[in-house]
Queue: 2 jobs
Job 1
Amino acid sequence: MKVLVPVKRVPDTAGEKKIDPNDNTVDRESVESVLCPVNEFAIEEAVRLKESHDAEVTVLLVGPESAQPIVRKALSYGLDAGLQVTDDAIAGSDALGTARVIAKALEEQEFDLVLFGNQSTDARTCLVPAAVAELLGLPSLTYARHLEIDGGSVTVHREHEEGWDVVTSQLPAVVSVVEAINEPRYPSFKGIMAAKSKPLDVRSLADLGVEPEQVGANGATATMYEFKDRPPKEAGTIVEDDGTGAAAAQLADWMTEKKFV
Amino acid sequence: MSTTAPPTVTFALTEEQQLLRSMVRELLTERVTSARLREVMLGDEGYDAVLWRELADLGLVGLAIPEHLGGGGSGFVEVSIVLEELGRVLAPVPYLSSVVLGATVVATGGSEDQQARVLPDVATGSTRLALAHLDTAGRLTGPPGIRASRVADGWVLEGEAGYVVDGRTATDLVVAATTDDGLELFLVDAEADGVERTDVEVLDATRPMATVGFSGVRVDDANRLTGAEPMAALHAGLQAAVVAIACEQVGGTQRTLEDATAYARDRVQFGRAIGSFQAVKHRLAEMLVAAESARSAAHHAARVLATDERQELAVAAPLAKAYCSEVYEQATGDAIQIFGGIGFTWEHDTHLYFKRAKSTKLLLGDPKHHRSLLGDALGI
């Protein structure tokens, strides 16, 4: 089977991110760029499909040439090939613009399964996987915390607040995974050394037949006009134990209210 | 004499080396927490076997072992990256003892057959080598504590070897012994009859050492290393280890600098961050300058070792060991001051770094010893 894993370059999740007031986009100079950590779960699932179903896995990245190390990083986990869509016109795209580019790139590929992370750690819109499925007219299975392939179908456990639904679809399909799905492995030294020799195809918007005005800042349906710093953290709730045991009930109520339990 | 510059003068890492570093750092940050380190340090196992297994599976233990012997076939620059990261978290694994000391001596001193017999298992981590070459006084220039005598179909080893790094937990010992015809190197099963291993009390509990006694230990002729000349092979192992320690020290120094700087930014006293006081700020600035110089010295030595420039190595290795030792010791001592009261507590990790700095300063020769080697190499 053939699997495609779209990945994203994001500012380091742990780093302090800044927005450039000149164009209201993330200031890439201010923080290190990394492979989106949520993608690592999709990559791990793809590597498992390589092991169990002899899957051939291609990683897809939409981003500038400088993002190529991120494709190599993804390949170091043992994936087979890379596909990068690079074009100056893509800069400033919103989620739908990005989805358009990914969908066009996928149209040219043969695949049985597309494996997304359910969200990126920078924008956290969760929109791209479903938008790509819609544009391609394919089934969309989101928030997968478990995935099984059986012949021509895929079954996932779709996570929600009260548990999960079991959803089955014919292949090809678009699946987005959540972090509960697996524990990603680390790339091995062999994988790292092999990453550079894996084929990497670089395409432009013209190659894919995407009109530049459909993407980028001009094609975006969402525009950012203003941004503010996050407000300082407010003081938390303190539950005091007065010895009567009432505190336990208060704590339990609070946890239920916040949906921790 | 240092006559030729090494062929590579840039310390920039390749894309693969950067990926290797970030992978190892992520892995070790996740695995070697302060709690885990202390659990291993105070436990009986002597090293973190789970982490060791994982490092081996990722190909990090066999990094420099040739590919046809099951390793990664890389050079010492890659090994130095791993060492720096291990030193950064004080990872309690027998990397220095098995991968650097033991494997280098076998790779140099062993015949092709002996290498093929030992090194694949070193690469998978199932064999853990330890080098026994000192006497119990730990004299660097004296003869080994072990004597080997010829018998009909082999050798008999007698004596006591001191300061054997990871000696109690090793599966196999590489033993330097005096014979009637000079120094010889032997491979000895650590469980062999007559071998007795006792942990000794060490300052740095994250790196155990043992005294290894040999009484009438029989060794087959096949286990006497017959590759390069024994003294040269031992020297190669020790020189690689000296550079390895410098790389570890750089990792520890960098971590110390980062932690102390973060604390100085964070900790408020008299209404302002303590890092704004010159006494603290200048200490950190000096620590940064020293850390950068130490890194240059260690990286240079690692590159020289990787390219096997022997004349330059005679300069670069002792220089790196002498300098990085002093920088690490100073940095960890200063960090204790910057951390103030909390830095004096058992729960805080600074003392672990301080002890590693102290112990590695002496391990395989103190700065004075290495400066004297450097003087000899430079002919001054």
Job 2
Amino acid sequence: MKAFTTLTSIVAPLDRANVDTDAIIPKQFLKSIRRTGFGVYLFDEWRYLDQGQPDMDCTNRPINKDFVLNKPQYKSAQILLTRENFGCGSSREHAPWALEDYGFRAIIAPSFADIFYNNCFKNGLLPIALDAEIVDGLFKELTDDYALTIDLAAQTITTPSGKTIAFNVDENRKFRLLNGLDDIGLTLQHADKIHAYETERAKRAPWLFREISI
Amino acid sequence: MAGKTLYDKLWDDHVVHTEDDGSCLIYIDRHLVHEVTSPQAFDGLRMAGRKPWRVARNLAVADHNVPTNHRDRGIADPVSRLQVETLDKNCAEFGITEFGMSDIRQGIVHVIGPEQGATLPGMTVVCGDSHTSTHGASGALAFGIGTSEVEHTLATQCLVQKKAKNLLISVNGEVRAGVTAKDIVLAIIGEIGTAGGTGYTIEFGGSAIRALSMEGRMTVCNMAIEAGARAGLVAVDDVTIDYYRNRPLSPKGDDWFMAERMWRNLHSDKNAVFDKTINIDATTIKPQVTWGTSPELVVAVDDVVPNPADEADAVKAQSMQRALDYMGLQAGQKITDIQIDKVFIGSCTNSRIEDLRAAAVVVEGKKVAANVKQALIVPGSGLIKQQAESEGLDKIFIDAGFEWRDAGCSMCLAMNADRLEEGERCASTSNRNFEGRQGYGGRTHLVSPAMAAAAGIAGYFVDVSAWTGE
Ligand code: SF4
């Protein structure tokens, strides 16, 4: 996993509420058995005029020119600014994979769906929830070359005018993201505790530990 | 001291370790695996040279991509086939029990879990699928996870979690005739919205929930995720205990008595404190029909399509208008004037035997309307299909013009060959009506099995509680 420390980038505005994971990466792409390569299909139904298929070459597909990510000024955006309840719907981790593979590293919104929010941290993406008024202010302030600087260690966002906005992030998630740490390795450091729990639980609920074959 | 909620009890019972910041390492009793969200997790295990921590705690089945007819011919779509074959290979390599495509026990992961007793009261249950909330109907803490967490569960039998808040939704009173668990949960979502449960675990309680069968409770918990909550719960009672007696993986002999004693404590204490309580009057709930592209965009069948102009919140009004455009509906149009093209009765929300019986009662002796191009019945598992056939339900459906299929997710999300064509309108018993969910450009109306069946016969939505079929 890529570590996240600081980031300065152009901001792409996606002015919609309740963007669900079906919109972020339509379900036909879930058929892939790989972990990478989803970026070209990010927001597929909005971004292209034809219907996307897995493993399709996207270089010559008809583009929806009105869609924000197709505007030249946002091509290199690594920060997405959007509205409430981003990432709702299915739990597919392909959504953060697609956002990350496309090049986004941070998403700013008033709120996120729970599973999506969790999945972001596991994939080197930083979701930042800010008050709706602040997000609205950013939308209003936004211009074509509008860039924000995000400092994860300091938990701040700095706007072009030099104003800083503080944000919350759970300490544990912050630590892992700052260091790009793998979750499983961290958990396995507690292997003794897992064994101890199993021994104790087996006394209380022995049926869970009988390996019935079916 | 305040008592514990059911969620508190389940949580406390599974904490392996607590971090300084309050996040916990939670032990996972049952991990259900399916073909869509697992390949990358198995890949991750292989890449790191890891093995499953407790292989017997995993149970796998292919459901999203499987064809629901002509199964002997295999899977035509190469991408779907690859996912299913990859699951078979991974299960064989890691020694995980899998119900293969030709196994009678195969079915939708959230249907076969309780059916087999693979998910039991008091367990923590996870699966790489958001509708894992279904299993909470048995008093288990069950929630959907992403693929990284699938890998984490395989490798450690644990997950790092933060405890959610407690929300009690208390539904009281007797429902009217024709009102089902599906209508109750749609009415709840209509009231609290798709983010109403975000950050909470919802316990569904009250006399109307107690009166539901296990199947009905599963329908309600299934859609907890559509209300924004990762997990839904129903307390254990006689209905639960009776359901789990003699399931293949239920505890046997002395284990059973010990388990029953433990499970009987799986309810919120009388003096438990919830962070929030919502009361719903069951007597006012009518059969529900969604009109938009989010489950919260729902009205009673005798109502009309709402007008965005009446919505004060501009962002909401805008999404209502977008939903109307997508759905091809007019504000003010009567729900009972909406004609449908297809019917889908199935999915982990409504594909259990009780659902099929409810639909059969409505269609018996009648014919699917001429304007309905296709009407599908897709049982949730091979065993449910068998049960329905032993009751003669298949005949009732086939005589009426429905197609009687094999078990799988099918037209719930159209990953297999069953789907809507662009612009087609469907009465569906599934749980999501998002744009394109049932096929590119398809239009989904979420309803109960009886309502879907009646719409199939009439050709448009009818109030099943008042409908005679004439
Ligand atoms: S039936 Fe539908 S909602 Fe349920 S697991 Fe399958 S695809 Fe998901």
